Amino acid sequence: MTSNSYDSGRLNLPFVGICTFGKYPYVQDWDAIDADVAVMGAPYDFGCQWRSGARMGPRAIREASTLFSFGHAGAYDFEDDVTYLPAETTRIVDIGDADIIHTDTVQSHANIEFGVRKILAAGALPVVMGGDHSINIPCINAFDDQGPIHVVQIDAHLDFVDERHGVRFGHGNPMRRAAEKSYVTGLSQIGIRNVSSTARDGYEDARAMGSDIQSVRHVRALGIEGMLARIPKGARYYVTIDIDAFDPSIAPGTGTPSHGGFLYYEVLELLAGLAKRGTIVGVDLVEVAPDYDPTGSTSTLAAQVLMNLIGRILHARSA
Predict the structure, then answer these.
(1) Least confident interval from 93-107, 193-207, 273-287
(2) How many domains would you assign to the chain?
(3) How confident is the prediction for the chain on average, in pLDDT?
(4) d(CA 282, CA 313)
(5) Would you say residue 124 lies in a domain?
(6) Phi then psi dihedrals of residue 218, to 5 deg
(7) Is residue 209 pLDDT above 90, yes or no?
(8) Percent of the chain with pLDDT over 70
(9) Which of 76, 83, 125, 195 is surrounded by the most beta carbons within 10 Å?
C-alpha cells in the first residue's frame, strides 16, 4: 500500500489534545494575529432575564467543534461538490476569550470590544462565540471605523428593547443599540416568533429605524431565495445568530427556548446564500447554555453552523 495525505502527520482524533475551536492554532498574543479568521469567546451572561448559563457556551462550542476538525482532508460536501476549509489554504486561529469581570457589564463589554478591534486591525474576520446576546453590542461597537454594515439577525426574539428599568445593555437590547449606529444601514431580523422580548412599540420602532422583520413561517412561505432577495445585495453583512432561532427539539440548550423554530438546513442554506450575495464581515453566535442539554446536541449544532459558515465565507472569497 502507498501512503497518501490521509496517512501523513498525526491522526489527532477529536478526543485527543487541547480544545481550541476546530483544533486550529491558539494565538495568545492579540498583536500577533495572522489569519483570515479569528475566533474569540465572550463568556458573558449577566444580561440574561431568565435562565443563565451561556457563559459556558464558548467552552462547550470549542469542545463540540473538535468533532469537525478535518485535519488533512478539509471538509468535502458532496452535495455542493466543494471541499470547504482545505488545510493548505485555511488560516483560522483561536485567540481565546475576552476577559469577563463578574458583575461589571461595562468593563466586560469593553474587553469584548477590545478583542474584536484587535481581530479587525489584523485584517481577519471576527467570529465571536457568546455568551448571551448582549455581547453583540460591543461587537457592533468595534465596527465604528470599518464602513457601513447591514446586520442580519437570525433569532426567535426581536431584541429591540430601548430601556427597561434602566437596563440598556442586556440581551433584550442589542438590535436597538445596533440600529442607533450611523454605520448600520439596516437590519434583517429573521425567525422572530411567538411571545417576543419586545412589545409592539418596539416592532414599530424597529421598522421605522430600517428593520425588515420576518418570522419562521414568513421565511417558509417566501422560500430561502425569496428571503435572500429581501436582503440588500452586495452589502457588507454582520451576522448575529441566536441559537434559539432553531427549534428547541434540536437546540434545547439555551436560556429562552421558543417552539416553532428553524431546522438546520433552513439556516445553513440562508447563510450559504448570504455568503454569495455580499461580504460577511463579522459573525457572532450566542445563547448556547450547555447545562440545559445533557446530550450536547445544542453545542454540536452551534459548532457545525459556525464551521460550515466559515467554510462558505472563505470559499466565496476565493471564488
Answers:
(1) 193-207
(2) 1
(3) 94
(4) 10
(5) yes
(6) -60, -45
(7) yes
(8) 97
(9) 125
Model confidence, pTM: 0.95
- Considering the domain boundaries, does residue 6 fall inside one? no
Q: Is residue 14 part of a domain?
A: no
pLDDT in tens, 125-163: 999 999 999 999 999 999 999 999 999 999 999 999 988
**Mean pLDDT, rounded, for 51-61:** 97
What would the grid cell of residue 308 be?
A: 460550515
Residues spanned by the domain of 74: 21-318
Using alpha carbons, list the distances in angstroms from residue 176 to 60, 162, 188: 29, 6, 13
Report the CATH number at residue 291: 3.40.800.10
Q: Are 247 and 301 in contact (CB under 8 A)?
A: no
Q: In this predicted structure, what is the pLDDT of residue 1?
A: 38
3-state SS of the chain is CCCCCCCCCCCCCCCCCCCCHHHCCECCCCCCCCCCEEEEEECCCCCCCCCCCHHHHHHHHHHHHHHHCCHHHCEEECCCCEEECCCCCCCEEEEEECCCCCCCHHHHHHHHHHHHHHHHHCCCEEEEEECCHHHHHHHHHCCCCCCCEEEEEECCCCCCCCCECCECCCCCCHHHHHHCCCCEEEEEEECCCCCCCCCHHHHHHHHHCCEEEECHHHHHHHCHHHHHHCCCCCCEEEEEEEHHHECCCCCCCCCCCCCCCECHHHHHHHHHHHHHHCEEEEEEEECCCHHHCCCCHHHHHHHHHHHHHHHHHHHHHHC
Grid coordinates of 310: 466559515
The reply to whether omega before 131 is within 30° of 0 (cis) is yes
Q: Tell me whether residue 285 is in a domain.
A: yes
**pLDDT above 60: residue 2:** no
